[in-house]
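Design request, tokens follow.
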């Protein structure tokens, strides 16, 4: 397990312990523990309400799964075009994971911020073209938030008015994503500090074997994270004291979860393709702002 000077559970607090030590009044109050009977809420799009999102934000549920969110006879053809696309690239810090588009976190590992912003619009346009005759799922995901969350949803901009990219395509094939967390403000200390970061993924292709999403019932602070850091994520051995839930996505699902909770993707034994983005809340009464 390595030589780090903490024991499992010693440094990472449970949500209830964190609630007791939480000192930031603007922070999201997460309740201790998920609903034991239904950690993953599965529903039809028409039934999704702000209450479901609020329960996710406050930690009462681990994930929301919307089945049949993106089903169409044209989807297999779109997926083949994605697999053959010259835009398909690899993460510099995780070269076994394919992608089309840029993640903002890549600006801490080589990608220039100016290039991220300069290419945002054209990349989104090229992806829109790749998805034709279908609508880019990123726009459908943004519309879901806009239609469910009273303050609405729009694309994130920085203080300089630069607009973020959204709707990254990710490809796992024989590969996994290590247990990790996603925090906009960890990738850019000058960025706004969200009080909540939602991950949204639409599953375009899923292999028969593997590719589960795993979410743990813990939200490490930066200090806790850095104590158990491993590669771009954290050492899973330290997560044993925490409950986790594994979800095998189905093609066409939209799954949403708290990106600040530790999460991982198990090895996909075959192509696993998603359209992915985040949506942050900068304050409790505000709109969701989407980005990748
Ligand atoms: O593809 C997934 O199921 C989750 C990917 C992920 O790590 C994320 O959205 O942050």
């Amino acid at each position: 397990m390595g030589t780090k000077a903490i024991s499992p559970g010693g440094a990472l607090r449970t949500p209830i312990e964190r609630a007791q030590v939480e000192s930031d009044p603007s922070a999201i109050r997460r309740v201790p523990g998920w609903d034991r009977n239904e950690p993953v809420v599965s529903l039809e799009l028409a039934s999704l309400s702000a209450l479901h999102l609020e329960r996710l934000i406050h930690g009462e549920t681990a994930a929301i799964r919307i089945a049949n969110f993106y089903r169409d006879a044209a989807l297999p053809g779109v997926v083949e075009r994605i697999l053959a696309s010259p835009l398909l690239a690899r993460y510099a810090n995780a070269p076994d994971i394919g992608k089309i588009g840029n993640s903002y976190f890549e600006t801490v590992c080589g990608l220039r911020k100016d290039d991220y912003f300069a290419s945002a619009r054209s990349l989104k346009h090229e992806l829109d073209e790749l998805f034709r005759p279908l609508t880019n799922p990123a726009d459908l995901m943004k519309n879901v938030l806009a239609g469910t969350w009273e303050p609405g949803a729009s694309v994130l901009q920085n203080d300089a008015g630069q607009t973020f990219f959204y709707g990254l395509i990710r490809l796992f094939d024989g590969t996994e994503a290590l247990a990790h967390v996603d925090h906009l403000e960890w990738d850019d200390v000058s960025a706004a500090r969200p009080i909540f970061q939602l991950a949204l993924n639409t599953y375009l292709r899923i292999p028969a074997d593997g590719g589960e999403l795993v979410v743990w019932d813990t939200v490490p602070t930066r200090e806790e994270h850095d104590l158990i850091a491993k590669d771009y994520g954290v050492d899973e051995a330290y997560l044993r004291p925490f409950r986790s839930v594994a979800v095998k996505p189905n093609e066409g699902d939209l799954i949403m979860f708290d990106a600040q909770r530790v999460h991982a993707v198990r090895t996909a034994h075959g192509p696993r393709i998603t359209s992915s983005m985040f949506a942050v809340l900068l304050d409790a009464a505000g709109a969701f702002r989407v980005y990748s």
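Comment from the thread starter after seeing the answer: thanks! Residues 15-21+40-291 form a domain with the Jelly Rolls fold (CATH 2.60.120.620).
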